Amino acid sequence: MYGVLKPDQGHLPLHFSKMSQLRAVIIDDERYACERLKKLMFPFTRIEVTGYFTSSLKGLEYILKNKPEIIFLDVELENNASAFEFIESIDSHNYKPFIILVTAYTHYSIKAVKHHVFDYLLKPVDIDELRDTIERLLEKNSTAPKLVIPEFSGLSKRESDILNFILEGKNSREIADLLYISLNTVHTHRRNILKKTGARSVLDLIRMHAG
């Protein structure tokens, strides 16, 4: 089963102008996950979800034909298929969309970095984390920003604790529960960590830490 698709309206350039609408496709072997993410995307009017697929093969066929700008991709797909094999198939066609992995598993983040994934969201997707990802994606232009080496020593004790949890793959709700603080407080600390380290996303922090 897969989502009802609208007719393709032409391929927009991958390096889009500020006013262009972007097309997104969701691929997840669980239909509920596809439908939930599509609903979460509703407030982001700059992005149109043109379809979703529980079959990665049908999804790949549609994507290579229509070339959407954004792909939301589960890591562990049906029949033991892998998101990283999926990405390699896309790369082999000289096509570079923004790929956002959406998964319940934390141990794929380093592999995601190696496959040049734009971002990595943990299920259940937090709407604030999704908003941060979308805002950064919309701001991105044809020249990728240069990563700044982080000053981890400039973080407070609480920020360092939260950074360690982030690097372990924990989402904001899990961190709030572990530290007995509010979700809003975690979001504030996350923003401060990104500002102090010069990182633009969690994946940037992982890249910096790994480097």
Main sheet summary? 5 strands, parallel
Q: What is the distance, rounded to the nearest whole angstrom, between the alpha carbons of the first and last residues? A: 42 Å
From the 3D structure, determine the CATH topology of the largest domain: Rossmann fold
Shape, please? Answer: globular
Number of helices: 9
Q: How much helix, percentage-wise, in residues? A: 40-55%
The CATH superfamily name of the largest domain is Response regulator
Strand order of the largest sheet: 2-1-3-4-5
How much of the polypeptide forms β-strand, as a percent range? 5-15%
CATH first level of the largest domain:
Alpha Beta
Mean pLDDT: 80
* Name given to the CATH architecture of the largest domain: 3-Layer(aba) Sandwich
The overall number of domains is 2
Element string (H = helix, E = strand) = EHEHEHEHEHHHHH
DSSP strand count: 5
Structural class, from helix and strand content? alpha/beta
Over the alpha carbons, how many angstroms does the gyration radius reach?
Answer: 17 Å
Low-confidence stretches: 1-19, 141-150
Task: Summarize the structure in words.
The chain is α/β, with parallel strands linked by helices. The N and C termini lie far apart (42 Å). Helix 4 (109-114) links the parallel strand 4 (98-103) and strand 5 (119-122). Helices cover 44% and strands 13% of the residues. It is built from nine helices and five strands. Residues 1-19 and 141-150 have low confidence and may be disordered. The protein folds into two domains: 22-139, Response regulator (Rossmann fold); 152-210, Arc Repressor Mutant, subunit A (Orthogonal Bundle). Helix 6 crosses helix 8. It has a five-stranded parallel sheet with strand order 2-1-3-4-5.
